[in-house]
Amino acid sequence: MIFRLLKPALFALDSETGHRLAINGLKALPLRGPMPQPGRLATQVAGLAFPNPVGVAAGFDKDAEVPDALLGLGFGFTEVGSITPLPQAGNPKPRLFRLVEDEAVINRMGFNNGGAEVALARLKARVGRPGIVGVNIGANKDSADRIADYAVMAKIMAPVASYLCVNVSSPNTPGLRALQDEGALTALIDAVIAARDEAGSVAPIFLKVAPDLEPADIDAIARIALDKQLGALVVSNTTISRPALRSHHAGETGGLSGAPLRQLATQRLRDFRKATGGAVPLVGVGGIASAEHAWERIRAGASLVQLYSAMVYDGPGLGAKIVRGLDALMQRDGFASIAEAVGSE
What we know:
Layout lengths: L1 H10 L3 H13 L15 E3 L2 E3 L3 E3 L10 H6 L4 E7 L12 E4 L4 E4 L8 H10 L6 E6 L8 H12 L6 E4 L14 H17 L6 E5 L5 H13 L4 E4 L19 E4 L3 H15 L5 E4 L5 H9 L4 E4 L1 H6 L3 H15 L5 H4 L4
Parallel strand pairs: 3-4, 3-13, 4-7, 7-8, 8-9, 9-10, 10-12, 12-13
Antiparallel strand pairs: 1-2, 5-6, 6-11
Helix pairs in contact: 5-6, 7-8, 9-11
């Protein structure tokens, strides 16, 4: 209700200012633990016990400012970042655009964040609190050795992360998606695993992939995920493709998310489900804005789902609404657990 009242004022501001106000609003909330969850929605993924399968995608809380506030709103987990070793300003503004007519967002942020040191201090301060908080790691734009950046981030963040998510799929850092190439990705994952192990951590490693992949790319990534025993594949990041859009911002460069990504992201999830034989857990992301969308993604093979862009239009209370709806849909369709429903379409 509060978001609905504030939405006109927020939308009168540019997108990035509106987002900053949302973060500040969440920071002002009284600190509380995760909300009680219907037990039927609890699920195990990569050795982690999720109270429900609905999470916040990376990009919303880049600097780990409000993970506990988000968990307190009913999300089953949240993923902070992307975080890079050194602070990074990102791309020139404006770089974040609401496509209201399309219920979409285009961003070309460019891994803007305060760097590892700032985020680490915040994550250390919450050690011991309940709730699953993943850390999405990236490389600095001007780094001479991006694989080394990921290794550094894994070593720093593994001790304070419920899981590490390796982000090689952002379209807004030049050359980053080249790390999805089979040879480069193998070397990268090996370096991240070694760094995590050196830190004495057992945090599972997730890999976030792009939706703009060819069948051969999907097969190669699936082989690596199976061989390296990754905790999960996060499918998918934003798309550089442009379906038919109505907004006057349609021509902006950057990654497109929200409703127009839904069909593509769902198909990629099905593709990875087939390529991995269901042996690697999948996290469904892209265009999820309702319990029905989340349920479709779970039935298509997702063990967990994440959202971000839909909160731009429906507010941070959307997570709890989707959780309630999932519980009803699961009972309607006769499933006793989320795990039972995964891939059941």
